[in-house]
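Q: My labmate handed me this sequence with no annotations at all. I'd like to see what the chain might look like in three dimensions before we decide whether it's worth expressing. Could you predict it?
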Amino acid sequence: MEVAEETQTATVNDTSAESIEMTAPGAPASLYSRDFWLVFAATFALNVALNFFVLLPVFIVRLGGHATTIGAIVACAGLAALVARPGASFAVARRGRRWTAMRFLVLNALTMAAYIPVRSLGWPIYAVSALNGIANGTARVALFAMVYPLLPRGREGQAMAVQSLSGQGPASFGALLGEVIMRRVGLNVLFGAAASLCVFAAIAVAMVSKDPPHAHHAAPGSARNTDGGYLALLFNRSLIPYWIVTFCFGFAMSSRISFIAPFAYRQGIASVGIYFTLYGVVAVFVRLSGSLMDRLGLDRMLAPSLAVMGVGIALVALTGRFGMFEIAALIGGLGHGFAYPVLSAMLIRDTPAGHGSRASSIYTSMWDLSAMIGPFTLGILAHYAGYAPMFVIAGAVVLGAALYLEAIRRRSAVASIG
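A: Here is what I predict for the chain of 418 residues:
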């Protein structure tokens, strides 16, 4: 998956006055403050640790598991994170984003280390996966909410591109580094290294001065302001497309996160880390052109970016044929590199004033829902139909989301002309 992330402590609840942006256009100093970079560092370290965990399926296979087992164990994390989401929002509201992020990052470190004594596919590995999902999901909600007030109006695409480097930067080397650690010193050291990175992330969050304050203005063109809480946001007609697309995005992504490693090794690929490195490097490169997203227009870029990403995922099915593994990585990274920051920036732009953390919670919950349903469903499909057809179907899901968005965009354009 992929996220992200000073004069008062804000309280976030259904009646709080929270906004998405606090910085006026042309004020980059606030965006790139010390606290911004501390949150960036924490998110970066967390994502390096999470990129180590693309090798968790290898651990499961060594314990005697297969595709359905991988899907079930990974789905446990998504289910637990989803069930815990109201508690995460409560913690953010009562204790603050900084407090929540710091403590759940520590808990995340403990759960990652808890894989070390696991020696079988019994209930302990499912329990550890569930606890890991709760800790990771809650920490990510808090980190993403900390970033919300720091994005400048009118430059959301560029700002999210910078912040999203804390996700795709680790993706460019995390899996490859994890593979080196796994082969040279074993999976137990890999789990320990991941835990250490989460501790570092918690220390970085602890150094943030205070929770960023919230302004009280809405972004131009945002969805209608409402005081109806989570349900009103969930069923807001302007935001529903984002929830649907986020779920499809995450569903497709779960195929590569959960099943690339066992499939590639089975097809004779010597290093799966090269796939994630190529994917991440391309994604980082395109995100450095964040201003391009704002110049071309966020609405015009999202559907094509998703379509390119879908093609890249579907091409994984051809792994084992000359160069296709690497080509799939390059194409997938190109689409993903644009799609994630554009989607995040559009959601931030269109979220009603005063509902940023609730929108963040729903947004993260869509990722968690896809992380629960995706691995389980795709694992069953891979078990009975094979990995290759499974990757084609996963790519088709995100292609369908691209077509859905393009239909909405064209209908809106026709309506505006009329």
